[in-house]
Design goal:
434 Repressor (Amino-terminal Domain), elongated, mainly alpha, 157 residues
Length: 157
C-alpha cells in the first residue's frame, strides 16, 4: 500500500477548506440535543439541493451527516411499542419534516392518511421510510408483528 503524503501548503489548504466546511456543517460525533438539532437542520437544508441527490457532489457529505444523526438516534431514542403511523410521526417530527418533505413515502395526501391511521404503510413505503430515516424496517411493523428490537437502529438491508 502506498503512503500518501501532503506538502505543508496542501495541509494548510485542506485545513482552511475543512474549517470553512465545518463552520457550516457539523462533522463530528453528536453529543447533545442542541448539536443534534443543528445537525438535523443542516441535513434538511442540504437535502433541499439537487446536488445532494444520489451521485451528486454533496451526496457523500449528506450520507456522512445522516450517519452521525443516526448514531445519535440509536443511542438516545428507543421507540416504544407504537403503531406504524406513530413511528412515522415521531421520526418526521424529530427531523422537523413536513408531510410534503417525504415524497419517497407518498404524496402529502397519502402521508396525511398514514399519519391519521386511515391508511397502512405498504412494503414499498416501509422500505423507503426505513432507508430515509436509517432505521430497521421492523420499526414500521405493528408491535405484535415485530419480533425484533424496535429502535432507531440503522437498517442493515
Amino acid at each position: 500500500m502506498e503512503t500518501l503524503t501532503f506538502s505543508q501548503t496542501e495541509i494548510e489548504e485542506i485545513a482552511d477548506r475543512f474549517g470553512a466546511l465545518a463552520s457550516k456543517v457539523p462533522l463530528r460525533v453528536i453529543t447533545n440535543d442542541a448539536e443534534y438539532e443543528k445537525a438535523v437542520q443542516t441535513l434538511n437544508a442540504l437535502l433541499d439541493s439537487p446536488k445532494a441527490a444520489e451521485g451528486g457532489p454533496l451526496a457523500p457529505l449528506v450520507a456522512m451527516l445522516g450517519d452521525l444523526i443516526a448514531d445519535y438516534d440509536e443511542e438516545h431514542f428507543v421507540l416504544p411499542d407504537a403503531a406504524p403511523s406513530e413511528v412515522l410521526r415521531e421520526l418526521t417530527s424529530r427531523r422537523q419534516l413536513k408531510q410534503t418533505d417525504v415524497p419517497e413515502i407518498g404524496s402529502q395526501g397519502v402521508v396525511s392518511e398514514i399519519l391519521n391511521g386511515k391508511r397502512e404503510l405498504n412494503a414499498r413505503q416501509i422500505a423507503a421510510a426505513s432507508h430515509l430515516f436509517g432505521v430497521s424496517p421492523a420499526a414500521f411493523f405493528p408491535p405484535e408483528e415485530s419480533h425484533t428490537k424496535r429502535t432507531m437502529e440503522p437498517a442493515h438491508i
